[in-house]
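hey so i finaly got around to running the thing on 8-oxo-dGTP diphosphatase from Hominenteromicrobium mulieris. pasting the sequence first so u can double check i didnt mess up the copy paste, my clipboard has been acting weird all day
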Amino acid sequence: MENKKSVTVVAALVREGDRFLIGQRPEGKARAGMWEFIGGKTEPNETNEEALIRECREEIGVTVEVGTLFTDVLHDYPDLFVHLFVYNAKITEGEPQRLEHQDFRWITPEEIDDVVFCPADVDVLAKIKAEFPAGGAN
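ok and heres what it spat out for the 3d tokens, dont ask me to read them lol
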């Protein structure tokens, strides 16, 4: 499939203690019902950091401070090729709201296996489990 669309996606690893924030994709979108990190596609002429700040405002109504790159992964979906950049991020203003996701929640690394995530997040989740082991509040 040579004509498959390729996109850059940014996501926020927002942590509070040993928990991190995830959102459930809404009905009507690809991978509906699956869980993911808050974020989305970059727009033309937009930096990853600018895109992440915009996406967090649009999706959950908060302002974030974008920190260091946590990891980046490449994933080949049947309909899309994704380069996902996951940044450490901190909410600096507002409380998360359901603006675009059908739900959101805070989970611990121990709860990762109980949630159905988008396939592009699998490597990110493995890194979270390795870096933030059970009971560790880094």
